[in-house]
Prior knowledge:
This protein is mainly alpha-helical. Helices cover 70% and strands 3% of the residues. A two-stranded antiparallel sheet has the order 1-2.
Amino acid sequence: NEYKSYLRMGDSLVVSSDTEREPLIDAEDEDASESLMDNNIDVTIKVEKTRVWTVTLVLSTVMTVLGCSFQFGFQTGALANTKEVLEKTFHLNDTSIEISVMVSGMAIGGIFGGLLAGFAADLIGRKRCILLNNIPMTIGTVLMAIAHDQYSFIVGRIIAGFACGVSTGVGPMYLSEISPVKIKGAVGVLHQFLITLGILVAFIFSLDAVIHANIDPAHPTDYNHKLWHVYFGIPIIFVVVQVVLLPFCPESPSWLYFKKEREDLAKKALTKLRNDEEEADREISTMIEERTHTSDRTMVSYKELFTTPHLLLGLVIGVGLQGAQQLSGIVAILNYAPQIFKTAGVSNSDVVTAITGGINVLMTFISIPLIDRLGRRTLMIIGQIFMVIAYVGLSLAQSFGSNNQDHMTWSGYLSIITVFLFIIFFAIGPGAIPWLIIGELFTAEARGKASSICVGANWLGQLLVALFYESIWDGLGTNTFWLFTSFVAFFLIFTVLFVPETKKKPVDQISREIQDQARKFPPFVF
């Protein structure tokens, strides 16, 4: 235990005796450490450097998060500061159904993309699915960029949303399957980190000073020749980058082994990812053991997913975590941040919105090392507790707010502080963990189909909030965020009761723990 403090990510602690060449204990096995001391066994302790970040792993990770996660983040934040521009361009008002459909159109497409993602990833492979997904992303992006009426823009938004749905289903799955156990959490959080970075880029490039930069002084109200056309075309850059470089990355070893039953190709992919043939052999042995512990079948059917107790419990946990993310109201915070700040009397609301995006990026980056140190369940609970506190403050700020933009009152300052607090703890908890944990709850045989259902649930939650937020606001007014407070509190209880800790555990061990957990429920439940 004393030597553990000297370890860094990727190091292994090897404890051996003078008579045994093989390691006696694992670095994480505290009971075994005490046993050695109790029996006065003389041991030799050394730290072995293990190279976990190889060039191929870095390239595969970067290409996936740039082409999947960043694109999703950019589309999520794209309308926060541009709704007013689009309203004036297409001669709409802020209560028109077209504006609501523009905001929710991404989620409409995302539901179908998310539900299809697992099936497509199982059928043609993770990498090929990600590559082909650039086709709908390109079509949707071009339609939005060249749109001359609200209808073509909405169609483009839905098609781009479909691509984002596929990305959120296949991207985290591929990252989980190519990453070593030691850094699986860190690699998984990179998905959320690039989402937040994409949101930040969308916020910055849609600032009033940028999006209106080419206004003709002679016609200051002419909204037909704006930079918004170029702004909505930005995703094309990342489409090109991914199409050029992702083909050099290997396919998922898990998919090659479990779906294609090609142990030779799986080993070849692992050797390329790890740059170490012995490590590739060890991971292939783990896959063989995983199949032995689970099933002789290649893939789990949808019927088995809903009728097998431990798979159904895993599905409930996965869907519940996606609900915890989207029903927290994060879509409302990100898409309607300027309106929220204005209600509380904040001037320069678009700038404060961009700062909100920056805090989201910073805190997600900070969470990368924490995810494998503190654990998924712990961070989820901490995040939700402080999100409830933040929402209580924001609800008070909205209730006592003022629309006076000339002089910001205490409610304006409280609104800014509480939104920032919400974003900070959303980023380290419900923002990052649901995407990561999907790949850890299920073995490879069930992962594709289960991921599709979980991702579909995520997009359904996003659609509900995006589509009905303005109607809820019209009905509840400044009490709207009390509703979201109750949602976060409910899912906090859900996390405490159901969500297991998956930190640094292999998938087959997590699966066995969920089986044990399912047995504790009455037969009619699971």
